[in-house]
Design a protein that fits this description.
There is one protein chain. The chain is of the alpha+beta class. It folds into 2 domains: 279 residues, Endonuclease/exonuclease/phosphatase (Deoxyribonuclease I, Chain A, 4-Layer Sandwich); 45 residues. Helix content is 27%, strand content 26%. The strands form 5 sheets. A 6-stranded mixed β-sheet has the order 5-6-4-3-16-15. A 6-stranded mixed β-sheet has the order 7-8-9-10-14-11, covered by helices on one side. Strands 1-2 form a two-stranded antiparallel ribbon. Strand 1 and strand 2 form a beta hairpin. Helix 7 runs antiparallel to helix 8.
């Protein structure tokens, strides 16, 4: 979670120390990685006092936690297996992906294992870009229509809402291109937040804003002020893109801190030049789950005996009424399939299987 005092000190350092323009965040990233590996003694914020406290009893992977992942992936099509494999130890409930670089017909056939494509936006005229939200297949959700606000380059956005015990949680995914119109972006974001606030005050905003929040720029301050007017505060205080000579924080996650006990940490998977971020909502009553259905055929002594009897009653006369080998085989297969399906009909059954990340090899 972000420490506002630390953030302001970092900004002052960036503004005034001309001899050392960039802050060395290596130790900070290592400390976050250590927290994730140990899964204990994580620094979180008390929902009432909004002050840091030690949290020991709940590890990050507790079943009572709800995890949201965001990353600018710079092209999803050829990275699905690597992406799933990198997330297999933490299994987030929601994946917010920016810059997936896919068209509508392409993103709808993307296979991300146990994740379902919830909401998305794809470009029609320009290349690359786009945003998407993938959600665990057993979580119920509703898509929020934001088509009136979307515009390529300027504001690429999608959202969905999830029913928790007493409220809705809204997850918003945003991408703004470096060449986008900032005035349009800031105006429309305010309208979007006004619309979402009427649905629920619990909104989590994930995205690539192409604004360096480590700088005290007018754009960064304006956007942070706008979010703060809706009680949304930054939770990311580490650089999300580290190059040879620069460190920038242009990806961020905003939420209402007073409503949640949370921890946010970086996720470095090496599949993009942007690092991921994971925010964990601690000790929450999660959304209701769908009961997965599977189709089975009951094969037992009775059904096998019935199958044999039906086969014995069949005369097979129609098979030999034709001299064409292919037609003979097709006729046989049709009769055999009808008897098989009659003897062993498909039945729906609730599945108690837990979702697990499975990565299939490419052939």
């Amino acid at each position: 979670m972000v420490n506002l005092n630390t953030l302001h000190k970092d900004k002052e350092l960036l503004s005034h120390d001309t001899s050392n323009k960039y802050v060395n965040y290596t130790s900070k990233i290592n400390s976050y990685s250590s927290q994730c590996n140990q899964l204990t003694n994580s620094t979180i914020y008390n929902s009432k006092t909004n002050k840091p406290k030690q949290y020991i009893s709940n590890p990050i992977n507790s079943p009572n936690n709800f995890k949201i992942f965001h990353q600018n992936i710079r092209g999803l099509a050829n990275k699905t297996d690597e992406h799933l494999l990198s997330l297999s130890d933490i299994n987030p409930h929601i994946l917010c992906i920016t810059e997936h670089h896919l068209r509508s017909e392409e993103i709808n056939i993307i296979n991300l294992g146990q994740y379902t494509l919830g909401a998305y936006y794809c470009r029609r005229h320009f290349k690359q870009g786009g945003v998407s939200i993938f959600i665990l297949s057993n979580i119920m959700y509703e898509i929020i229509d934001l088509n009136q606000f979307k515009k390529e380059n300027d504001l690429e956005i999608c959202a969905l809402k999830i029913k928790f015990l007493l409220t809705y949680l809204i997850v918003l995914c945003i991408y703004r291109s470096p060449s986008g119109n900032f005035s349009y972006f800031i105006t429309q974001i305010e309208m979007v937040l006004n619309k979402l606030y009427k649905i629920s005050s619990n909104t989590i905003v994930c995205g690539d804003f192409d604004i360096n929040f480590l700088d005290s720029s007018s754009k960064a301050l304006l956007l942070e002020s706008l979010f703060y007017s809706f009680c949304l505060e930054s939770t990311v205080d580490f650089p999300t893109r580290i190059m040879h000579t620069t460190k920038t924080l242009i990806d961020n996650i905003f939420l209402v801190k007073k409503n949640w006990n949370t921890i946010t940490h970086p996720f470095i998977n090496g599949i993009s030049d942007y690092d991921g971020q994971i925010v964990t909502l601690l000790d929450v009553t999660g959304p209701p789950r769908k009961t997965p259905l599977i189709y089975i055929r009951e094969i037992n002594d009775y059904s096998i005996q019935r199958f044999i009897e039906l086969l014995s009653y069949e005369t097979w006369d129609t098979i030999f009424s034709n001299d064409n080998t292919n037609e003979i085989f097709n006729s046989f297969l049709d009769i055999y399939r009808k008897i098989f399906q009659t003897s062993f009909p498909l039945k729906k059954k609730n599945s108690s299987l837990e979702f697990q990340t499975v990565v299939y090899p490419r052939y």
